[in-house]
Amino acid sequence: VNLTGDEQLAQRIFYVHMGCNFGALSGFIVSLVSSIMYLVTRNLDWDRVSQAAIEAGLIFGLGTVVTGMFWAKPTWNTYWTWDPRLTTVTITVLIYIAYLLFRNGIDNRQTRARFGSIYALFAFLSLPLTYYSARWFRSIHPVVFSNDNPEGEGGFQVGSTMGTTIEIAAVSFVALFSALLIMRFRQLRLQDRIEEMREDLG
């Protein structure tokens, strides 16, 4: 199949877009698990993991929105449309941005961790809505892995070559997320230790 220049660009962006999806999903799943673990153990390391996961996940979440817009321009001839999938993924990103804003306004460390963990549990509920939005509602967004929405307008078939490329993108972006998670976790742990030393000296 011969593709135009714009179509070739959209095709390349698609793989980055999918990679960002997997990176964001990894972040929000890790935040869910680590939030539960904090509420069970009260170990602040789990709260640090949750915060680090959400911060790293947000990088990929914003990447999903931005790359989606650049993919949409040559595909739909517009950067933005109030499609159910586009709307719900943007709401999810905003919910997790609010997580950072709200928790940073709490001074007490344990209270901040408890609030953040409970908030992260509820924030995760937006992910199933985002995932199924293109399946439940009339949508022009492609249903990549299973075209099971008879009313959807965004049919999409993944061939073997595309599937392999998507898998490579998924593994690469999840590995990048893991590296960012570890680095940010270490930074947060060091930051807390510095705060504790200041309190002891004060």
Please give a structural write-up.
- With 202 residues, this protein is mostly helical.
- It has helices at 5-41, 44-76, 84-103, 109-123, 126-136, 160-201.
- Helix 2 (44-76) packs antiparallel against helix 6 (160-201).
- The radius of gyration is 19 Å and the shape is elongated.
- Residues 149-155 have low confidence and may be disordered.
Blueprint (SSEs and pairs):
Elements: H1 5-41, H2 44-76, H3 84-103, H4 109-123, H5 126-136, H6 160-201
Helix pairs in contact: 1-2, 1-4, 1-6, 2-3, 2-4, 2-6, 3-4, 3-5
Pick out its properties.
202 residues, mainly alpha
Oligomeric assembly: single chain
What is the tally of beta strands? Answer: 0
Mean pLDDT: 88
Strand content: under 5%
The end-to-end distance, rounded to whole angstroms, is 70 Å
Gross morphology is elongated
| Largest sheet entry | none
Task: Give a quick precis of the structure.
Helix content is 78%, strand content 0%. It is mostly helical.
